[in-house]
Design a protein that fits this description.
Radius of gyration: 13 Å
Shape: globular
Number of helices: 3
Strand content: 15-25%
Number of strands: 2
């Protein structure tokens, strides 16, 4: 967990401040811990609160991440031309 926090913090420090960043935690299930925001201090605080769990619901974590940045996109639908670019960093 310490290495993942350091990597995520380095990412937050490197990504342009105008980019919104959200955090999804996952264990036996996935949950949005922080919806996309440009507030880096809020993101770093959310990272500090993450704890170990007992599962690896990676697929659900990716699905929740995509839903957080594209809430109107249905499964299998192409992204809208005006959609904000997004990326998922999985640690």
């Amino acid at each position: 967990m310490p290495a993942a926090r350091r990597a995520a913090t380095a990412f937050l420090d490197a990504v342009p401040s105008s980019y919104a960043v959200g955090i999804v935690s996952f264990s036996t299930a996935a949950q949005v811990v922080l919806p996309p925001t440009t507030d880096r201090e809020q993101a770093k605080a959310a990272l500090r609160e993450l704890r170990y769990g007992s599962g690896t619901a990676i697929g659900e974590a990716i699905a929740r991440s995509v839903a957080a940045v594209r809430p109107d996109a249905g499964a299998g639908s192409p992204p809208a031309a005006e959609a904000v670019p997004a990326a998922v960093l999985l640690l």
